[in-house]
Amino acid sequence: MERSMLSILAHHKSKSTVEKAAAIILKGCAIVSIIAVLSITAYMFISGTPALFKVGLTDILFGQVWAPTATHPEYGILYIILTSILGVFLAIGIAVPIGLLTAINLSEIASKRVRKVVKSAIELLAGIPSVVYGLLGILIINPLMYQLELFIFKDSLTHQFTGGSNLISAILVLAIMILPTLINISETALKTVPDDYRKSSLALGASQIQTIFKVVLPAAKNGIMSAIVLGVGRAIGEAMAILLVAGNSVNIPLPFHSVRFLTTAIVTEMSYASGLHREVLFTIGLILFIFIICINLVLTYILTRGDQHE
Amino acid sequence: MAKIQARNLNLYYGEKHALKDVSLDIMENKITAFIGPSGCGKSTFLKTLNRMNDYVNNVKIEGEILLDDENIYDSRVDTTILRKKVGMVFQQPNPFPMSIYDNVAYGPRIHGIKNKKELDVIVEKSLKAAALYDEVADRLHSSALGLSGGQQQRLCIARCLAVEPEVILLDEPTSALDPISTLKIEELLMELKNKYTIAIVTHNMQQASRIADYTAFFLVGEMVEYGKTKDIFSLPQDKRTEDYITGRFG
Amino acid sequence: MNNSIYEKKSRVIDNVVHVLIQLSTFISVSLLVVIIGYICYRGIPHFSFDYLIQTTSILKNTVGILPNIINTIYIIVVTLVIACPIGIGGAIYLNEYATNKKFVNIISFTTEVLAGIPSIIYGLFGMLFFGGVLKLEYSILTGSLTLAIMILPIISRNAQVALQAVPKSYREAALGMGSTKWYMIRSVLLPSAIPGILTGVILAMGRIVAESAALLFTAGSLSVLPKSLFGHLFSSGGTLTIQLYLEMAKAHYEQAFVIAFILILIILLLNFIAKWISNQFDVNKRG
To answer: Who contacts A178 (Cβ-Cβ below 8 Å, separation ≥6)?
Structure first.
């Protein structure tokens, strides 16, 4: 037989060029996410810090008057920050019990058929655009809140009626919007709990409910914590759904007050703001961004702590 | 005296007839071993004794199992009380991801004991009964997952003892363990039988002959032969039993 | 002591908890029913085919959302064209090439961060960087570039999961026959991972269709028909969601609901397609 012309050394060069180029290009793709995070961080700080120096850190963060277009403009965003924190906190307070119990049902109790139906519903709920939630908030929740407001404050001489566009309405919308996140991630966490734990608990004479609450939930707590943290992130960043629902004027965050959140403050005024006013809006963006980064760090901490346990 | 009596027990997984007309008595304060090749139904039978098969989809059970003359498949039965009386230890050591103390105290707490002192007593007693106390006395509050496999399995036995069962079911409790841990658990079982009725599934015939007073041989869902262990191993009545224990199949 | 197994313990707490669990599930599901039901109830009566194929014009006295539909399609296509190669390429690198664990961890962390950043922040960044620094102003391209970063985590994560699901033996078989790594990836890995990758792309499309806050300050809100195929990239264009927001802000609720109805239909369709693809995928796996 004739010796093959194909040497294992031939073609090596041209092929390796393609190979190398592919590796480099692919690495470049992977690095895009790092570049993106770095540039977003850089731009948020570059655009958000000037106003802090011009107006003064305490005047912005702790100022109680927001009057950017007045002759002597004031840029206090204390109430806006408080609204975001309180609103998110309460929305989580409403959504966590409902979401967690639904997740428990999906993972531990429901039959396959029920599970399939509920899961599809939750997936769809997650896909509904924020503006649609906003639209429904205005036309369903606000009128209901207005009725409640009329009932509670019918004799009040000082209450400023909001037509239902108030903090409670916004909290309800937020709570609904974060439900899918809570349910999906908690369910995944519950599903990863080994069946052995359930079996041995039941074999000790525990009821199903006792087993769920005393063994399964504690074993899944890291995953459930991540669900809650992600829910917080989702709620604090939501803008369009609560923009019109919350009434959108800067007030102390009390249940029946019309309020403004960090996100809605940016959306409302960005289109016409200019100069220092615009810079302050970027500062609000920076504050929101810092909140989000903190939430991410907490999340990473929870997840790595979970790894170490195993 | 018979503690548990199975009467014409049939079990189906969907279409599959997994237990065929099994009848046998499990004697009080004795160790009864179930042997047979994999898939013969011995584990399935064990699980019917405290109704852990209830959680398998598509399972259908006919016949009855009497525990102290009460049918455990009666509709009036509260399975939590049944399982308090008939405890179970699984093949894989499966302590909860909690401290050693909390693992043992889990059962008593579930059944309503809240008093700390009372729990302390139960935990200590159960760990001693499972021959684990001396090894873990100084770290009761550290995670149970830090224990060795053999220790974990003894912890699971202690956890089971803590609810003061009358019967203990063990599903191949030593198959995941090394020989020394296995020996410890066997010694433990020999001691426990003075107080409890024990049923153990094993595919290790030496183990059955070492510790069991009675042995039942299962083959494809059928209970082929049942009797005193020494009789089964020395004078098997059925050809199939003889083939199995002499190692001709399995 | 209670000695008979026949006496059932009454478990009041268990029963209460059971009721709460069922109630919560009912609430979660009924929310969806109410939302979709209400949108259909308010949207369908005003829905007309003309509305889909007309442009809003005072001169011609017509209302319609054709430009918004076209803008939405433009943004979906351009965003995916930008994000897919980068997202899938990055996933391939992480799964097949990367050896440095620290580097992989950093990228996973940044991907996680990107997934957590709210759209309003993307909007600000896009406006500053693509709109301002790159001088693209309010344009479909600005919006698409912004959304491309936003959906990158969805695409790359799904692609990574899909690649991980490809059995190791496939790779070994291809490499063992003398195929180069890149050829193995193109000829063996990607085709087997396609269904998973596609699921990610469909999910990303859903996210793009639903997006509003990130587009308001990047793609803007203009609704005019494109004058040229590529020129339109550089013109401002509002998507369906943006148009919905504008109608809502003007209290034109009838039109808002028609758009909401159309959006829900699109979301349902995308959901259905994603499900269908992943079902196909399962069948392949079994076979």
So the answer is: A91, A92, A95, A99, A231, A234, A235
